[in-house]
Amino acid sequence: MTARRIASIWLPRFPMARWERVQACLPRPDPAPWEAADSGPDHAAPLVLAAEGRHGPVIHAANPAALAAGAQPGARVTDFRGLCPDVQVLPADLPGDAAALAKLALWSRRWCPWSATDGADGLVLDTTGSAHLWGGEAGMLDDMTARLDGLGQAARLAVAPTHGAAWAFARYAESPAICPPEALEARLAPLPAAALRLDGETLLVLRRLGLTRVGDLMAIPRATLERRFGRDGKMLATPLRRLDQALGRLPEPVVSPPPPRRFRTVRRMAEPVLDPQPMLPEALAALCAELARAGQGARTLRLELFRVDGATARFDAGTARASRDPDHLRRLLEKRFDGLDAGFGFDMLALEATRVEAQEAGQVRLDGATESDVALATLVDRLSARLGARAVQAAELRESHVPERAEAWVPAMDRPELLAADRLAPGGLGGGGLVAPARERPVKMLPAPERIEVLYAVPEGPPVRFRWRKRPYRIRRHQGPERIAPEWWRDRPGTRLRDYYKVEVEGGARYWLFREGLAGDGRGGDPDWFLHGLFA
């Protein structure tokens, strides 16, 4: 019988590494000449991600600069501010971290069939009988290290006969650690008591009793530990129970969640064909029927065509919202057949929904037409399939009262909620189709405010004349000002406020102007004027 082997992977920088990866993928537009550069958080400065604790925010993760300054995960943010007043504090994305770690657990099944998450920053794998595929456990750990390093994750690894021992060696022994069954007790004994996965209160009691090592607990009679700490009941993580789990006296199986369901259909041809397109409707109908039975809809599709000579043609298509309409999905894929090299023919076709989302059954209107948001999503899908996923964008509202920050353009395929019918209205903000806010905004916002020359009666009064693009304009009437103060939590010190005016010139055209700064505000010289938008 093969001895049980458990691998533990500790990712000490997982939340911070994930945050850095997300930040690296976000677009950083070049700052406009009138605006101070906003490059986001300074990665060289101390930065921590905070989560809510029992007595206020606590440190969930920290970058190297914050760790060097004394940051400790679990410590209160207010206490660390006393040590490092310049620390940047951002909210942690706990649900996002958990979802990403769960995906990483599924990804790690390349090494063994059973894997699961282990806390908020680790993975546990039952590698019994799998290590020989990599030439032994040392080769398997080397492959794990290399692949995780390619994902930007620094990992500490260990393999031991039990889950508790592997967890302890990964965090408190030299990595990578491989412990044979016969050396389990000897290797565990010098480790600190915290290697038994005990809570802080229990560890404090053990330190007061002078029991700082696992070997100290091994030397204590079992009856004494059971009388002092108990064995079962409300506190399952007692020293005696954790010690028995680490030594293999109590079972602790790896509870591996089932893999996500695959929605895939395969069609094999009786003989090679040069044009497999006629087989596509049947495969799509079968796939959509399977999705309907599961209450799911496809967001991304993958079509694979297998030639008789072993070559494979692969095509991907995406949808702006979950769909299981065979005709719509067929139109997204039929363009992929143009210019297809059939070689000596295709003998198999595979169609898979690689990304699915829950989709409730819909009902058409009484006149037989589809809802407007469904029609819009269908149009976005077809345009994206023809022009590219990044070519079709939708406007997304942001929480900011600065006009150029209140709206951002994102790929419509990535944000299906922006295509909902209740968010659309003709002639919305900035021409993007969004419902306008309470304050009136121009129909067209310039990509960047343009500097203008202004003549005014008093320094802080409304403009009388202005020159824009070498053309003079005389103002007949005005409305304002509407003052917009700097966002102190984002803008640099010295950023000036803005006073916006809605003006109408001779000829009836209306423009949106703003004065940046006030005379004598101590934040620069004379105020500058800009034109920011045009009204209908």
What does this entry look like structurally?
26% of the residues lie in helices and 29% in strands. It is of the alpha+beta class and 536 residues long. The chain has four domains: 1-21 and 77-183, Alpha-Beta Plaits (2-Layer Sandwich), CATH 3.30.70.270; 189-250; 263-362, Dna Ligase, domain 1 (2-Layer Sandwich); 444-534, no CATH class. A six-stranded antiparallel barrel has the order 16-17-18-19-20-21.
Q: Any idea what the CATH architecture of the largest domain is? A: 2-Layer Sandwich
Structural class: alpha+beta
Give the beta-strand count: 21
Specify the CATH class of the largest domain.
Alpha Beta
Mass-distribution shape: flat
Helix content: 25-40%
Unreliable stretches? 29-39, 424-438
- Note the beta-strand portion: 25-35%
Q: Looking across the biggest beta sheet, what order are the strands in?
A: 16-17-18-19-20-21
Organism: Jannaschia ovalis
Domain UmuC: 45-167
Protein name: DNA polymerase Y family protein
Pfam families: IMS
